[in-house]
Amino acid sequence: MLTQPTLRAWRPGDAATVLAAFSAPEMDRQADRPVDSLAAASRWIERRAADREAGTAYAFAVVDEADVPLGNVAVSAVNRVHGTAWVSYWTSLAARGRGTATAGLRALTDWAFTDLRLHRLELGHRTNNPASCAVARAAGFTVEGLQREKLVYGGVRYDVELHARLRGAGGAAR
């Protein structure tokens, strides 16, 4: 179990790790463009750096003690007027079930509330993804509602459960 994750910016040398992660089933849903080659993985990393530079989104590699990326946590759609943003996360196939996503999400949440001074973080997951729900709850995100048929993949519509966490709300699941 990963209890003390390190978050760091994605690096060009991480392209092979990113490519491997995106080759797992259903990971294509985690990217706006296909990540199906080393060049595409490098472009994915470059877009994360450009977003960071623009101040619109911040993606971090969740790394182990050997600095090997195990997953990604990100805060995007940053609205500084309202102090809100959207968070997301994914892990490599090998890191699943080890607490990586939860530990990474907790660290990202602390960072977003402290460094970005945000007030509210939101996330959503398909209702047929109980593992993602467990991560959100374990990181202190409260269920706020259901968005019916919000997403479509392969011609099938999926309901999305919305979660949020407020600054100062603590890390205990509710």
Automatic annotation (TrEMBL):
The record ties this protein, via Pfam families, to:
Acetyltransf_3
List the InterPro entries.
Answer: Acyl_CoA_acyltransferase, GNAT_dom, Ribosomal_N-acetyltransferase
Report one GO cellular component: cytoplasm
Q: Plastid: present as a keyword of the record?
A: no
The superkingdom of the source organism is Bacteria
Gene Ontology MF term list:
protein N-terminal-serine acetyltransferase activity; protein-N-terminal-alanine acetyltransferase activity
Which UniProt keywords are given for this protein, alphabetically ordered?
Answer: Transferase
Q: Which residues form the N-acetyltransferase domain?
A: 5-167
Protein name, entry field: Acetyltransferase
Organism name: Streptomyces alfalfae
Upper lineage: Bacteria, Bacillati, Actinomycetota, Actinomycetes, Kitasatosporales
